[in-house]
Amino acid sequence: MKSIIISLALLLSFPAMARDYRTGSIDTLDRKVKEIHFRNGQEKAHVKKTEVLSDPIHQAIYQRSQNPRFRGHWSGFNLGFADFGDYDVMPGGSPFMDLQRKNSFVMQFNMFQYSMRLSKLNNFGLVTGVGLEYQRLRFQHKNSIQRGENGTIHPLSMERVKKSSLKNLYLTVPLICEYQFPAKQHRRAYVGAGIMGGLRLHTKTKVVYKNEDGESRRYKKAGNYSMNPIKADVIVRVGYDKIALWGSYTLTRMMKSGKAPDLHAYVIGCGINF
Fold this sequence. Notes:
Layout: H1 2-22, H2 26-53, H3 56-65, E1 76-84, E2 105-117, E3 124-138, E4 144-147, E5 153-156, E6 161-182, E7 188-210, E8 216-222, E9 230-240, E10 243-250, E11 265-273
Antiparallel strand pairs: 1-2, 1-11, 2-3, 3-6, 4-5, 6-7, 7-8, 7-9, 9-10, 10-11
């Protein structure tokens, strides 16, 4: 009977002796075991990642995944102020095409956009799309224009003119090379330059004047006014995230050669990207 009691006492005291021998509690040992497993897992993951990235295909995919996908900055709304560069007056004529810069503006509605990546880091590519450009060019000398014989453009004088404008509407398609670089909060700054083609859709003149009774009246007349059907602009865009500063210069003549002064418009403005 005594031997049985001694045996049971030894069995009950063995776990405590084991804990004392290891000089630590069960919770402490569990944490150490977990840390060992975690370190082993990290080492295995690092080895596996190194093996995967040794393959050129997987390495290219990994590099692209570390950078946001390339998305250009074209779609949006732009507003700018326009003027003509220096031009030669028609023989025997007057500078009737001079513009009021503060009242001559261009609005661009860039509706569709397509971006094509040219760099593995997704920071350089081509941007194209489709948009509409509306021009309102306010004449400085309160005259309008008219199309004479053989399509020659002449000034049209009217009495009591308050304001007179030439308005154009173009369908536009750009081709822009854009470079992007990192900025704060995962947003990107960018700079782009390229060419924008335009197809003229509509042209008209508008004159606001007062009649003999002092009432305001409007005179509108649509026509081609010897305008060239297409144009080509060189454009530059600089911005950050959704904000853009832009400028353009029309390389082609606005009106046909020999029919009107050699006019080339330039525009400076800002915009918001969608």
